[in-house]
């Protein structure tokens, strides 16, 4: 909420509209799954085929995509499109995670509801879905309710991932700050700039960056020799000077990076999620 308070009124309005559209899409997908016996069976079968770690990884990707959608409003010049917001997770994975989340929600509110044969699960879920205001929709609600819904979804996803212990030792970022590599796609896209003034040194090799030489520029504007920064970014996603984090392909590391973006935007001392 501290980060949201820094948005200008037009940005805040665009954010709530965008989140509402995102939740509407997810609501429609879940409705499609529950209304189609075939799609429900296929999705449930895929869900059952996943290990606990795979389920946690799936939820983590969903969490990462939703956090990424939010953080776009703090550093992008234009509002992210719905396509951009959903392109990070495949449709089958989206269906699977939505079904998983509603199963967890149902078990939490009605522990004995699923104590029946699998063939009856769809009917049970349909009844639950129609009788409750699932916070995945965001249809016809105020801005504050949309943000409450968003916070609720993020909290549920984080609790699921935390319960599986995948934030430490399960392939993610450990509490002792295990470093992860920068995303390969991000590294390839880094710009090469010409040094226009001599005298500055590369902090990695401590050698001067000579005038007229092409060097790598990170998003934080710090410059480094290409031969120095590439090996660095293969091991860690932070700037050697200011520790600004680049995106990473490690989903748990990316969640932590996105969370830090929100913490800095709000200028608050929010707790570290991972």
Automatic annotation (TrEMBL):
It catalyses: S-ubiquitinyl-[E2 ubiquitin-conjugating enzyme]-L-cysteine + [acceptor protein]-L-lysine = [E2 ubiquitin-conjugating enzyme]-L-cysteine + N(6)-ubiquitinyl-[acceptor protein]-L-lysine. One of its GO terms (cellular component) is cytoplasm. The keyword ATP-binding does not apply. Its EC number is 2.3.2.27. Residues 202-243 form the RING-type domain. Keywords: Metal-binding, Zinc, Zinc-finger. It holds the Pfam family zf-RING_2. It comes from the Eukaryota. One of its GO terms (molecular function) is ubiquitin protein ligase activity. One of its GO terms (biological process) is protein ubiquitination. The keyword Zinc applies. This is RING-type E3 ubiquitin transferase. The lineage of its organism: Eukaryota, Viridiplantae, Streptophyta, Embryophyta, Tracheophyta.
